[in-house]
Amino acid sequence: MQKVAISACLLGEKCRYDASDNVNSSLLDLLQGHTLIPFCPEAYAFGTPRPTMDLIRTPSGDKALSNETGEDLSAPVVDYANIFFDKHPDIELFIGKDRSPSCGVCSAKLYNTNKTLLSHTEAGLMAKVALTRNIECTDAEKYGEEI
Ligand code: SF4
């Protein structure tokens, strides 16, 4: 049995930008018996529903910018991630929703400031914090392939 941090939307929480979920029942079947600890940095920081954001390569680093206002939304997501992992220092596995700019592990899209796609294999902001802390991380869509 592992202690698993998992994107809350994968568990059926309606915390996506449009107040929908990403429930994944086959993933949940695979995770039966593990202790699941849900997280959603964007709902915590910005509420639901909310404008979308994208990862953008800027002169001062890769940032999550609001698609509505262009505001840099990175800090609240990173702050949430640090608080979450400080509170749960014994997390053994991080499962992030693939392609999310916050939660994707190796599937988030990165654009330049003209919105040209630079990469689709990036870590989202919360996943980056998990990786920095040497927590094993996987995208949800890869989990079944790795067990
Ligand atoms: S992908 Fe992450 S930030 Fe987006 S709704 Fe799911 S848990 Fe929240």
Please tell me how large the radius of gyration is: 15 Å
Give the spatial strand order of the biggest sheet: 2-1-5-8
Strand content: 25-35%
User: Helical segment tally?
Assistant: 5
* Number of strand elements: 8
H/E topology pattern: EHEHEEHEEEHEH
Q: First CA to last CA: what distance?
A: 13 Å
Helix content: 25-40%
General description of the model:
The chain is of the alpha/beta class and 147 residues long. The chain has one domain. 28% of the residues lie in helices and 27% in strands. It contains five helices and eight strands, in the order βαβαββαβββαβα. It has a four-stranded parallel sheet. A four-stranded mixed sheet has the order 4-3-6-7, with no helix packed on it. Helix 3 packs across helix 4. The longest helix is centred in the middle third of the chain and has 14 residues. The protein is globular and about 45 Å long. The two termini are 13 Å apart. It binds iron/sulfur cluster. The site of iron/sulfur cluster (SF4) has 13 residues, from helix 2.
